[in-house]
Design a protein that fits this description.
Elements (H helix, E strand, L loop, with lengths): L7 E6 L6 E5 L1 H17 L6 E7 L4 H16 L3 E7 L8 H14 L4 E10 L2 E8 L3
Parallel strand pairs: 3-4
Antiparallel strand pairs: 1-2, 4-6, 5-6
Amino acid sequence: MAIEKRLDLVKIAPQAKPPVCKIMDYGKYKFEQAKKEKEAKKKQKVINVKEVRLSLNIEQHDLTVKANRAISFLSKGDKVKVTLRFKGREMGYTKLGYDVMNKFSELISEVSTIEKKPKLEGRSMTMFLAPKNA
């Protein structure tokens, strides 16, 4: 029947007893599937994670410059990873690191929400921020 109609005989469920087959134009079917996948990919939004690095002894002006950079990342829809690196004897002053992270989050609080609070992992403290509208 498939040859008479100039179409393909496609097995839908080969494991079934008896196997289930369908008469269709297989090339056209594959093309439509590829087209649907392409449409689905167009609607996806890729979210990148950008990083801003701070230090324990950062000055106020440098902190505002880093905050403005983070605001530009967030306005484009990216997430921001804020990293504070402790060097040498700075490990004894981790509370000051939390203070720097809190100051930073206050500077950009109108455009961001804290996704993960500051957490100390080894010699670095990390915090993740997401855009507020997301």
